[in-house]
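Researcher: I'm comparing several assemblies side by side, and this is the next one on my list. It has 222 residues spread over two chains. Same procedure as the others: predict the full complex and return the structure.
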Amino acid sequence: KNEVEQSPQNLTAQEGEFITINCSYSVGISALHWLQQHPGGGIVSLFMLSSGKKKHGRLIATINIQEKHSSLHITASHPRDSAVYICAVGGQGNLIFGKGTKLSVKP
Amino acid sequence: EPEVTQTPSHQVTQMGQEVILRCVPISNHLYFYWYRQILGQKVEFLVSFYNNEISEKSEIFDDQFSVERPDGSNFTLKIRSTKLEDSAMYFCASSNGLAGNNEQFFGPGTRLTVL
């Protein structure tokens, strides 16, 4: 049983393209996290959201609690955005992770 | 900017040996976590720690694993007798509140290789 599903698994884009990564979950949550994992392995928190929409620079995250779905958008993508983007959901004590979406942005 | 640090960055050990992975969480954080990521797979929760005791653990965290906060700054993960399948990247994280609705700050990870 996959509690957190991400799509697509892999995504290749040209520099400048608008990118959307989707996350669906099946459990009740208090918040959803979007994380970025660099090629070297390090993990950085991008967003934590429990409703609505958040924006940080070229990144936008939205969540629909009723539909149990979230999207991460990247506007004007750049090769430095190439990374694995991970959706994780939290109830109270711990996070349940998706498998990640590997994004490659070509110049 | 405060950050979570982990040592060593890479540990190679023989099967059956004990390993201790070390983490220094952000100083004013109260909740600490260990996660692992087997190569090519998703990140998995191991254990959370609050108020000097385990608050939650996963099925992966069996009797071979233990955690400790030996002083005011370090947070360690011990694997008593390593198995080949313990080879993975181990991430420490810390947060101000419960993981579900508080931002987590991750360390750079320790890559454990069991031969």
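Model: For your comparison table: Chain B has a mean pLDDT of 93.
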